[in-house]
């Protein structure tokens, strides 16, 4: 028997090339940062926060909270909420007036809460649509 060769789609190759190009742009941008060590500490902290706290918490909550066909959407929503919280943490942990009002001109805690509300609403709609389609597929008894 001949081993089967995997087909590589053009889209996959283009996505890979685009990803490598964007990684190159990001790496070259790091060379222009005056305090590179601060950026590396922040990136390392974000990695530790995600791997040691957010991901296990999301997986545990998804395991405990739901059973059956709704586990995927709830875990996805928790993952998005955790990532949004990790991005918003610097602003959320330093509330108060700024010396320069143009640095952070928006109401970030309110926008963070609105975004989390949107994630929860979309998740509820996805779960409702799944329940509705499952209900419609059952034959009458």
Average pLDDT works out at: 82
Low-confidence stretches: none
- Distance, first to last CA: 49 Å
Based on secondary structure, the structural category is mainly alpha
Instruction: Provide the helix percentage.
Output: over 70%
The proportion of strand residues reads under 5%
The number of E-state strands comes to: 0
Q: Provide the gyration radius in Å.
A: 22 Å
Shape assignment: extended
Q: What is the H-and-E element order?
A: HHHH
Characterize the biggest β-sheet: none
- Give me the number of helical elements: 4
Structure notes:
This protein is mainly alpha-helical and 141 residues long. It has a domain at 35-94 and 105-136. The chain is 74% helix and 0% strand. The protein has four helices and no strands. The chain crosses the membrane at residues 39-66, 73-92, 112-132. Keywords: Membrane, Transmembrane, Transmembrane helix.
Short description:
The protein has helices at 10-30, 36-65, 71-93, 108-137. The chain contains 4 helices and no strands.
